[in-house]
């Protein structure tokens, strides 16, 4: 049977997003060559501040119909804070994708890679290996609220947290299923039910009920304050973390802190997933547009490249199995090879190849091309 073609919408965005994206695409193309996959790429300029400056909007009117024709969205980064306020560029583009395409899972692996200096003393590759699962569509990130008595000394602002049973249950179910498939079968729930007295006890209650469906998964709950302390003090595999699930806000914080504990934000990938496959999922690096280093050609491209391998997890979990699409592509092998290629290049530790955030003096080009040729060696 002829292999179906995986259609990927490429959105480089702003800043270093446009610098790392070419290497993300080239590495995917290399994997496609090495493993005989059929990939089709189409690049779009919207959801960027450059587009906003020209059109006064982050997205064209028909963006949804345009992107619905794709299987996945490959996204660089957005933001040019000197020209467009961050809340405008974020809410006008990327966050619309997340909400309109119901990408209710934000998945971020935290893994210590060989050759990367860990900011926590004494850790070796393999010591840190866990996933943060963040609720991505509701919770604390609602725009319900307002300001009253403005300009007086009674000025008051209110912003509501929204948790629905459907919204909470679906992220918990996803996290439990992920934990169940991992060898350690452990789930940590982030909460703050001592201080936030309505929504967080509800979250805990849903965790308790969901846990009864997964008797083989061990469950811990931690308040977010001590949980962040544990991330820094003892994130090691043999101590606690395996799958960590949190609300939109707590998950956001943990999913930046987690990768930071594994060396540099520059290597961390992120998947915004619609597990129901009704809409395309979006894969991106965790980092933003990094205006401070944009234009210098020194951004680390690994987060962009490795975000492809998040797709392989999806295949594992048969999330895409409806069309058996990735089986046609043999994506699992290709994604595994990509990760191995990255690890080999990083482990060599060549200063000319590693970027500055990893202690080297290499360029985006040097590191991107080294990984690309390593992937091609699988051919
Ligand atoms: P956002 O709000 O979009 O997440 P941000 O302002 O929080 O963006 P980043 O743009 O990710 O943060 O940048 C944070 C810091 O990390 C900056 O100093 C930036 O230079 C550095 N950084 C981010 N990504 C990379 C990368 N790929 N390579 C090297 N350094 C990076
Ligand atoms: Mg950030």
Automatic annotation (TrEMBL):
Needed cofactors, names only, are: Mn(2+); Mg(2+)
Q: Name the catalysed reactions.
A: (R)-malate + NAD(+) = pyruvate + CO2 + NADH
Highest taxon in the source lineage: Eukaryota
Domain Isopropylmalate dehydrogenase-like per the UniProt entry, residue ranges: 7-371
Q: Which InterPro entries match?
A: ICDH/IPMDH, IsoCit/isopropylmalate_DH_CS, IsoPropMal-DH-like_dom, TTC_DH
Q: Which UniProt keywords apply?
A: Magnesium, Manganese, Metal-binding, NAD, Oxidoreductase
Q: Is the keyword DNA-binding in the record?
A: no
- Gene Ontology MF term list: D-malate dehydrogenase (decarboxylating) (NAD+) activity; magnesium ion binding; NAD binding
Keyword Magnesium: yes or no?
Answer: yes
Record-listed E.C. numbers? 1.1.1.83
Family per record: Belongs to the isocitrate and isopropylmalate dehydrogenases family.
Q: What is this protein called?
A: D-malate dehydrogenase (decarboxylating)
Q: Which organism is it from?
A: Anthostomella pinea
What are the top taxonomic ranks of the organism? Eukaryota, Fungi, Dikarya, Ascomycota, Pezizomycotina
């Amino acid at each position: 049977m002829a292999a179906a073609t995986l259609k990927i919408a490429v959105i480089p965005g702003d800043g270093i997003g446009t610098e790392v994206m070419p290497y993300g695409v080239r590495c995917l193309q290399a994997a496609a060559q090495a493993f005989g996959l059929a990939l089709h790429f189409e690049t779009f300029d919207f959801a960027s501040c450059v587009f906003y400056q020209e059109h006064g909007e982050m997205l064209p009117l028909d963006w949804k119909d345009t992107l619905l024709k794709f299987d996945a969205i490959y996204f660089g980064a957005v933001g040019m804070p000197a020209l467009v306020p961050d809340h405008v560029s974020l809410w006008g583009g990327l966050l619309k994708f997340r909400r309109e395409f119901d990408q209710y899972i934000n998945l971020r692996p935290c893994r210590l890679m060989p050759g990367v200096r860990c900011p926590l003393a004494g850790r070796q590759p393999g010591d840190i290996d866990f996933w943060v699962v963040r609720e991505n569509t509701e919770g604390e990130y609602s725009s319900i609220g307002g300001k009253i008595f403005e300009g007086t000394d009674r000025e008051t602002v209110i912003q509501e947290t929204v948790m629905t049973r459907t919204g909470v249950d679906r992220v918990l179910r996803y996290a439990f299923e992920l934990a169940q498939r991992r060898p350690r079968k452990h789930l940590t729930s982030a909460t703050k039910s001592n201080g936030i007295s309505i929504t967080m006890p509800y979250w805990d209650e849903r965790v308790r009920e969901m846990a009864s469906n997964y008797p083989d998964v061990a469950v811990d709950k931690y308040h977010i304050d001590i949980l962040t302390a544990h991330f820094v003090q003892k994130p090691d595999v043999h101590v606690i973390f395996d799958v960590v699930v949190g609300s939109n806000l707590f998950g956001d914080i943990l999913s930046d802190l987690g990768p930071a504990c594994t060396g540099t934000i520059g290597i961390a990938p992120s998947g915004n997933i619609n597990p129901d496959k009704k809409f395309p999922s979006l894969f991106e690096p965790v980092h933003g547009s990094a205006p401070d280093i944009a234009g210098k050609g020194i951004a680390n491209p690994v987060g962009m490249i490795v975000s492809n391998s998040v797709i392989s997890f999806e295949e594992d979990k048969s999330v895409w199995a409806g069309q058996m699409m990735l089986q046609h592509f043999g994506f699992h092998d290709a994604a595994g090879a990509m990760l191995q290629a990255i690890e080999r290049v990083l482990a060599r530790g060549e200063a000319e190849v590693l970027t500055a955030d990893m202690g080297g003096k290499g360029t985006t080009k040097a590191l991107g091309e080294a990984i690309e040729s390593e992937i091609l060696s699988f051919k």
